[in-house]
Fold:
Amino acid sequence: MTFHPTHIVVGAAITAFSLTAIFAVAPPKAPDQLAAYILTHSQKLDISASANLVPGARDDYSATAGYQTYISGGTNYDWAKLVLLDGGFPVTDSNVTVFTRWMRQENGANDWWNRNNPLNNGLGSGGGGGTGSYANLQIAAQFLAENLRRPIFGSIAAGFDSNAPTNRIESAIWSSPWASSHYANGSHWAYTPVEVVKAPGGAWG
Structure:
């Protein structure tokens, strides 16, 4: 076999070119170089001043108040809501209005927590005629809710359950054996807005 010098030179040149091409590939950009590249080649969107922009709809959200919310509030309105919650009644403005009016008839607004028994409930208070007391207002709410669920007070419970008009629930209260006076069939009932009054912290236990 005969070797030609020209073939050797060409082969060496090809080999040298291949090695040069391999080492000529640039290494990956460092993080700071990449950030600079993005900044240099960043894009933007220009919107015409005459464009009609329509806000996107957002989902609404709400939270349901619970025991701790009412206890922290500590007012006569909060206690009325606590009773409704304990009894499984709807906590509505109408139902709360009846309860706060009823509480005012029993103990007045300024001392509604009297003996920790706002509605002078006899069940569980140690006073059959409603003269007993409870250790705290939380317990009082539980016993009142339990009492209202007894058949004897079924018409009152039905009114609260259906969120009936205030006059219908109040009529059921007057007709019931809750008070021996029957609130003079409503003639002793007050309809003015009930003042919001907070009970002393100790009343809540």
About this structure: Residues 1-24 have pLDDT under 50 and may be disordered. The helical segments are 5-23, 31-40, 67-73, 76-87, 93-107, 137-148, 154-161, 166-175. The CA atoms of residues 2 and 71 lie 107 Å apart.
